[in-house]
Design goal:
By secondary structure, the protein is α/β, with parallel strands linked by helices. It has 2 domains: 190 residues, 3-Layer(aba) Sandwich (Rossmann fold), CATH 3.40.50; 146 residues, Rossmann fold, CATH 3.40.50.2300. The strands form 2 sheets. Strands 6, 7, 8, 9, 10, 11, 12 and 13 form an 8-stranded mixed β-sheet that branches. A hairpin with a 4-residue loop joins β11 and β12. α2 runs parallel beside α12 and α5 packs across α6. The protein is globular.
């Protein structure tokens, strides 16, 4: 009798243990028991950790987090992802790689995040940890190393690879002015390395380069070097406050090179409002997303919906910031992948991200959509624009870098 009772007890314990393991495996939080809505439906939160610069040398990018938060809150108010609310856990990394890694550790080990979102190139420092833990990561940044999905199979990137944009720029410069003397201004990190590699792939090696730290505002000495070298075409891909200060100074001294600005640094907030429209008039940029401060989009339904959402969440002061709408668009892409995911875990998210096709997004220019492709990216289309003194206007048809052979 004693043996019989013991056998039954062990069997019961084994069954309970197995059930616990099954429940644990099914939860989106990787360990917590699923919650229920009272009707038996699993409503476990999907935890997403966000390490973002909210202070320090890149503190000006903080509005990107506001946009992301707005889209996630909108999603939760509409019922979440198939009944699962998204729990957004955020932390300031001050653009410090060590702080970013520590933030990621907390997201994964304490909060149970299935996805970690970062802003820029310093997310490279956190890839090894996320890989070790088997947790997916999405970076906003355009740095080429963030497309290394072979070595980091759960790492994805939102903005298109800046090397592709560099090659597009090189092709255009060669067509417009085969004898151009090109100068380049960018950050002293692998973002510039990536773009310079793209320019070189298109046959352009700048005669002069100015690679400076984030936050630099005075490039007068570098401008003098460009002029002395006979630079007549200047490629600029650097954020605030540098881009505005640079363009303002160039206009002030009366220098008139052909200006090619980066897609993500040619916006009103960073460039035009700081330098003045007259300093940017005539500049070119290969664009792919709407600038919320550009009057060209004042009546666009997607812009109006974005502005309404930001206002509803109390963020109306940031509506015109291009990084805010970029964060909003990234939120839409993340939610789009989660809604298509077969499993609400890191692997399920990455697989869904890689299966996006023709996904419309509130961020993109009319005629541009998101499609999964090589290197874990989802943006492959650009439209050449020229600033007419009031707005960015199309100069040519939308091109796809895959069709041009830039991305193979």
């Amino acid at each position: 009798m004693t043996k019989s009772i013991r056998r039954g007890t062990l069997t019961t314990l084994a069954l309970l243990g197995a059930a616990t393991l099954v429940l644990s495996a099914c939860t989106a939080r990787g360990g917590d028991a699923p919650s229920s809505d009272g009707a038996g439906k699993d409503t476990t939160p999907i935890v997403v950790g966000v390490s973002w610069p909210q202070s320090g040398p890149a503190g000006s990018v903080a509005p990107g987090l506001t946009g992301l938060e707005t889209y996630i809150e909108e999603t939760n108010e509409a019922g979440g992802v198939n009944g699962h609310p998204i729990e957004l856990v955020t932390a300031d990394d001050a653009y410090d790689p060590a702080r970013l890694v520590e933030n990621q550790r907390k997201f994964v080990e304490k909060d149970g995040a299935i996805l970690v979102v970062n802003f820029g190139g310093i997310s490279i420092a956190g890839r090894d940890y996320l890989k070790q833990k088997g947790v997916a990561g999405v970076s906003l940044a355009a740095n080429s190393p963030l497309g290394d999905v072979e070595n980091y199979p759960l790492q994805r990137a939102f903005w298109p690879d800046v090397a592709w944009e560099g090659e597009l720029q090189a092709q255009w410069i060669a067509e417009q002015n085969p004898n151009a003397v090109v100068g380049y201004v960018g950050f002293n990190n692998d973002l510039s390395e990536s773009q310079l590699a793209g320019l070189a792939a298109g046959g352009i090696v700048p005669a002069e380069q100015a690679l400076v730290a984030p936050g630099t505002s005075d490039l007068s000495a570098q401008v003098s070097q460009f002029q002395a070298a006979g630079v007549d075409t200047l490629v600029v891909n650097i954020g605030a406050p540098t881009v505005g200060a640079l363009l303002g100074y160039i206009h002030q001294i009366g220098w008139k090179p052909t200006l090619m600005l980066g897609s993500t640094t040619s916006d009103f907030t960073a460039a035009i409002n700081q330098a003045g429209p007259e300093a940017v008039e005539g500049a070119y940029a290969f664009k792919w997303y709407m600038d919320p401060s550009d009057p060209r989009f004042a009546d666009d339904e997607r812009y109006l919906a974005y502005a309404d959402a930001m206002t509803a969440q109390g963020h109306e002061a940031g509506i015109g910031d291009s990084l805010a709408i970029s964060g909003y668009g990234m939120g839409a892409a993340i939610v789009g992948a989660l809604k298509q995911a077969e499993t609400l875990d890191s692997e399920g998210f990455a697989a869904a991200w890689d299966s996006l096709s023709g996904l419309e997004n509130p961020l993109t220019l009319p005629g541009i959509s998101f499609d999964s492709g090589p290197f874990g990216r989802i943006v492959f289309q650009f439209e050449l624009n020229r600033f007419d003194g009031a707005s960015w206007q199309p100069e040519a048809d939308i091109v796809d870098v895959r069709e041009l052979g830039i991305v193979k």
